[in-house]
Design brief:
The chain has eleven helices and 13 strands. It is an alpha/beta fold. It has a single domain, classed as Aldolase class I (TIM Barrel, Alpha-Beta Barrel), CATH 3.20.20.70. Helix 5 links the parallel strand 7 and strand 8.
Length: about 325
C-alpha cells in the first residue's frame, strides 16, 4: 500500500513499541471503518488437518494478546498466530526492549513474553469473526522455575484449547531465562509427553482435536537439531515452526543497536532459518508439517521457504518494513 510508504517515516520517528501500538490502533480503526479489503489470490491448502484459506500467516509476537485478529484477516492473512501467552499475566522485560536496524531490515527484541495472560486472550478469541485459522502460541511465565515449566504449558493449553485452531509450543525464545533448555532431547520429550496426553483429554472434553506445533530456534547445532526432531517424531506433533529469532548478531555487527541483547529477526535471519527448515524436512516424517518463518520480506523469500520444505509461511519483521502490501505480494507470488 502506498499509504504505508507515506506513514513509515512517521512510525519510524517514534520509539519502536510506541510505533507498534500506533500501527495496531490504526489497523483496528481501518478495519472497524470498513476500509480493509482482503486481496484476492492464494489457494486454500490443508495442513495439520486444517483448511487454511491461503499459505500466508502472521507470526506470533505481532499480536500478543489477540486484540486485532479480525483486522489481520482484513489484510488477507490466511492464518494469524497470536501470543506468546502465558498462564499468568506478566509485564515482560524492562524497556527499552525493541530496537530497529533499518540498514539490515532487522529488529532485535527482548520483550520477554509481555502479555495479559492466556485466559484474557481466550476470551477475546471466543468473540472473533475471522474465518481463517488462528494459532495460539504458548509459553511459560518468567517466574516459573524450569523444573515446573510443563505445568505452565499445560495451564496455558487448557485455557486456550477451546478457542484455538492449533497450539504452538514456544520453547525457543531467547528472552526468557532457561526457556531454550527445553529444546534438549530429555526435556522436550518429557514436555511433549505431558502436552500430548493432556491434549487427548481436552479433545474429549471439547469435542474437537487441536493440533500441536513446536517452535524451534535457528541456533541449534546439527546434532541438537537431529535430537529435537527425533523427540518430536516420537509424539503426536502436527507441525514444526522454523524458526524463532537468533542470538547470533554477527551479521549486523557494527550497526546501531547490534550489541543489544535479544533475538534478531528480519532479513539477516533468512538464510539460517531456511537452512534449519530444509534440515528438518529431511529429519522429520512427511506427515509433520513445516511452517517457515524468518526473514521473509518478498515473494521470492517466501518461495525459498516453500522450496526448502515449508507448507506455510509466516511474516513479522518484513511487515514492519514493507507494510500491508507485503501480504498482497506474497499471496500473488505464491500463486504464481
Amino acid at each position: 500500500m502506498s499509504i504505508y510508504r507515506t506513514l513509515r517515516p512517521i512510525f519510524f520517528s517514534l520509539p519502536p513499541e510506541v510505533a507498534h501500538a500506533a500501527a495496531l490502533a490504526g489497523l483496528e480503526a481501518a478495519w472497524r471503518a470498513g476500509l480493509l479489503r482482503p486481496p484476492s489470490g492464494g489457494a486454500p491448502v490443508e495442513v495439520m488437518g486444517l483448511r487454511f484459506p491461503n499459505r500466508v500467516g502472521l507470526a506470533a509476537g505481532m499480536d500478543k494478546d489477540a486484540r486485532h485478529v479480525d483486522a489481520w484477516g482484513g489484510l488477507g492473512f490466511g492464518c494469524v498466530e497470536v501470543g506468546t501467552v502465558t498462564p499468568r499475566p506478566q509485564p515482560g522485560n524492562s524497556r527499552p526492549r525493541l530496537f530497529r536496524l533499518p540498514a539490515a531490515g532487522a529488529l532485535i527484541n527482548r520483550m520477554g513474553f509481555n502479555n495479559k495472560g492466556a485466559e484474557a486472550a481466550s476470551a477475546r478469541l471466543a468473540r472473533r469473526k475471522f474465518r481463517g485459522i488462528v494459532g495460539v502460541n504458548i509459553g511459560k511465565n518468567a517466574s516459573t522455575p524450569a523444573e515446573r515449566a510443563a505445568e505452565d504449558y499445560l495451564a496455558a493449553m487448557r485455557a486456550v484449547y477451546g478457542v484455538a485452531d492449533y497450539i504452538a509450543v514456544n520453547i525457543s525464545s531467547p528472552n526468557t531465562a532457561g526457556l531454550r533448555d527445553l529444546q534438549s532431547v530429555s526435556a522436550l520429550d518429557a514436555l511433549l509427553s505431558a502436552l500430548t496426553a493432556e491434549s487427548e483429554r481436552l479433545a474429549d472434553r471439547h469435542g474437537k482435536r487441536v493440533p500441536l506445533a513446536v517452535k524451534l530456534a535457528p541456533d541449534l547445532g546439527a546434532d541438537d537439531l537431529a535430537e529435537a526432531a527425533r523427540a518430536i517424531s516420537g509424539h503426536a506433533v502436527a507441525a514444526v515452526i522454523a524458526t524463532n529469532t537468533t542470538t547470533d548478531h554477527a551479521s549486523v555487527a557494527g550497526l546501531p543497536h547490534s550489541g543489544e541483547r535479544g533475538g534478531l529477526s528480519g532479513t539477516p535471519l533468512a538464510e539460517a532459518s531456511t537452512r534449519v527448515l530444509a534440515a528438518l524436512r529431511e529429519l522429520l516424517p512427511a506427515h509433520v508439517a513445516l511452517i517457515g518463518v524468518g526473514g521473509i520480506s518478498s515473494a521470492a523469500g517466501a518461495r525459498e521457504k516453500i522450496k526448502a520444505g515449508a507448507d506455510l509461511v509466516q511474516v513479522y519483521t518484513g511487515l514492519v518494513y514493507r507494510g500491508p502490501g507485503l501480504v498482497r505480494e506474497l499471496l500473488s507470488g505464491l500463486a504464481e
